[in-house]
Structure formats: C-alpha cells, structure tokens
Specification:
The protein has 215 residues and is of the alpha+beta class. The chain has five helices and nine strands. Strands 1, 2, 3, 4, 5, 6, 7, 8 and 9 form a nine-stranded antiparallel sheet that branches. Strand 8 and strand 9 form a beta hairpin. Helix 4 packs across helix 5. The protein is globular, with a radius of gyration of 20 Å. Keywords: Flavoprotein, FMN, Oxidoreductase, Pyridoxine biosynthesis. It is an enzyme of class 1 (oxidoreductase). Its EC number is 1.4.3.5.
Length: 215
C-alpha cells in the first residue's frame, strides 16, 4: 500500500494577524461556533495527551464539555489511566483536529481536578443510561469479554431502575488551564497559517503574547 501520493490542497480559508483578537478564547469560541455550523461529526471531540511515569506518551479522544477564560473541561473516571497520569504529571496537551474545515487547535496546559459540586452538577445533567455506564466501567482495566460488561450494565440498570443514580466516588472531571494555545489554518502550497498565543506575566498582569509560526 503506497501512501506517499495521498495529498490535497488546503484552500478553504486563511488566518491573518489582523483577524486575531487579544484573547485566544474569543477566537476559539468563534471557531467552535463555525465548526458546529459546519455540522462536523463530534465537533467537541479532542485528543488528550498525557505522559506516564516512564515518559511514555498516551493519547485518547474525549469530549469537551465546556470552556471559558479559565480553561477547558472534560469528565472521566478518576481511576482511569489518564487520571493516574495526571495525578503524577498534571501537564497535558489537547488537540482539536477539525480536518474537514482545515483547522486545528493545540493547547498546552495543566489539568486541575474539578470540585465535587461541579462534577455532580454535570453528572445529573447526563442521560440516565450514561450515569449507569459510569458505574459499570472500570476504565482502562482488562476485561475477559464484552459480555461481562453487558451483564454488569444490566445489573446496575436494574439496581437503579427507581430513583436517581448516585454519583460514583471514582467519577470526576478536570479543567485544563492553558499556558499556550496554537491555531492552525490550512493554506495553499502547504503555506499554512499558524499563530501561537502564549501566556506571560507583565507587571503582575497576565497577558497573551501572539507569535506567527512557520508552517
């Protein structure tokens, strides 16, 4: 299988310095809205990269649940592999690969565990079967067969058939507080537009420095 000839031109749009707001969150919000309007499948899907004790990187896709000037929020099992990595090294990387509209956003930052109040508020907003699924999956652990997972789901569904599903102690979330956010826009002839927002402290005030990067 020869993959070397697979290529295409990026011609949808450009990104210029004059188009950049002072805050990367303003640009991210605009891009997220445009991504949703373009009806991409899973527009909130993002790759979360963590590193284990040996320095081995791991990546997986999770869903962004909210964002604001403080950071980017996702939820997960606190006993999962990613959570174990974050406990030992809170530095993570997020990537939004919006290929069909020729854009990417890459975020470097530190993950901070959310309060139980914030977690409970989101947990109660989930569909009941999703709440039950949180109880069923011992995330990242080895399974003998899928059937074992399905049997456990049925058991928990029967257990919580009446009344609310309680929040598992091992289920929570993180906010990733960014130190840098890079916006990538595909360009013709591989002359892509890349802008890096980096957080800096100037006279006790935090500001975002903007640099254009070579493609």
């Amino acid at each position: 299988m020869d993959l070397s000839e697979i290529r295409r031109e990026y011609t949808k749009d450009g990104l210029r310095s004059a188009d950049l707001p002072e805050s990367p969150f303003e640009l991210f919000s605009k891009w997220m809205e445009q991504t949703r309007n373009a009806e991409l499948i899973d527009p909130t899907a993002m790759v979360v990269a963590t590193v284990d004790d040996s320095g081995q990187p791991f990546q997986r896709i999770v869903l962004l649940k909210r964002f604001d000037e403080n950071g980017f929020v996702f939820f997960t099992n606190l006993e999962s592999r990613k959570a174990q990595h974050i406990q030992n090294n809170s530095k993570v990387n997020l990537l939004f690969p919006w290929h069909s509209i020729e854009r990417q956003v890459a975020i470097c930052g530190e993950a901070e565990q959310l309060s139980s109040t914030e977690v409970l508020k989101y947990f109660l907003s989930r569909p009941k079967e999703s709440q039950i699924a949180a109880w069923v999956s011992d995330q990242s652990s080895k399974l003998s067969a899928r059937q074992a997972l399905e049997i456990k789901f049925k058991e928990m569904k029967a257990k919580f058939s009446k009344g609310e599903v309680p929040l598992p102690k091992f289920w929570g979330g993180y906010i990733v507080r960014p130190s840098s956010i890079e916006f990538w826009q595909g360009g013709e002839h591989r002359l892509h537009d890349r802008f890096l927002y980096s957080k800096e402290t100037v006279e006790a005030n935090e500001i975002w420095k903007i640099d254009r990067l070579a493609p």
